[in-house]
Amino acid sequence: MTSPMPFFNRRYLCRGQSSRGPLLMEDLKKRMKNAPQQRRMKQAAHVIRSGFSMYWEGRNLAEQEFGPLRSRAARKPWPECPDIVIYRCSHCVRVYQGLGYDVPAQEPACCGASMERVKPLQLEDVSPEINVDYKMVGGFNQSAVQVFWKTKQPEDNPEWILLKTFTGSYIKYVTSKKQPPMVFPLADEDAYVYCDRSTCKECVFRCKRGFIIYLYIKTKGLLEVPLEKMTAYFKS
Questions:
Q1: Sheet holding 130-137, edge to edge
Q2: Do residues 50 and 136 share a domain?
Q3: Looking at the domain assignment, is residue 82 inside a domain?
Q4: Which of 102, 140, 146, 218 fits a disulfide with 135 by CB distance 3.0 to 4.6 angstroms?
């Protein structure tokens, strides 16, 4: 009967076992010195099957680690999209978002008159009647921003929420039955994070610095909340 030893030098066996390959081979050779020929064949087949099993498990793990939404950026991106510009008609109270890098020389018109550009309010301008908070969650593969809001009066609930990211903006409308949080899933450069924590610790790196949350409230106007929080631990 042909000796099974040639199987041990095949490249796919070592590749399948990765760094554990040499250790398994040395252990197998010691055991085979006094083993019957049939037992040698069974042990060799078992090692080959184990090697392939470890190889495919490694491939599956690699595919899970690099999901389709994960950022491939080598460093933290910076916003490369235009600022958010919102116009409101004083007659019909409709709002419009300006798109593009160039601001028009004249304000857009609606209802036969020029619309006004809405100046964003800061959180301290509307508190304590309205409170807005956010969380970054998901880690490398499922990065997302959760937006929370709390109002004392129902009429102060936001009509829509817009998230400005590194590459653009993402708007969601708030229905009457919608309860916080509003979740904005991220992808590509917008999904860049420094660590794989399931919930952001709001450290000194602030990987989402440059993001801005906009909430449009009919009774108040446009509210602006930058994503720049940092816990007191990292400020000391």
A1: 130-137, 144-151, 182-185
A2: no
A3: no
A4: 146
Residues 171 and 229: beta-carbon distance below 8 Å: no
Residue 227 is assigned to a structural domain of this protein: yes
Comparing CA positions, the residue from 76, 72, 120, 71 lying closest to residue 95 is 120
- Locus of tokens 């959760």: 146
Domain termination residue (choose one: 24, 46, 61) = 61
Which tokens belong to 12? 């796919």
pLDDT tens digits for range 73-124? 888 888 888 899 999 999 999 999 988 888 777 888 999 999 999 999 999 9
For 137, other C-beta atoms within 10 Å of its C-beta total 16
Look at the pTM and tell me if it is higher than 0.85.
no
Q: What token pair was written down for 232?
A: 């007191």
Residue 120 is classified by DSSP as: P
3-class state of residue 60 by DSSP: helix
Q: What angle do CA 176, 182, 188 make, to 5 degrees?
A: 145
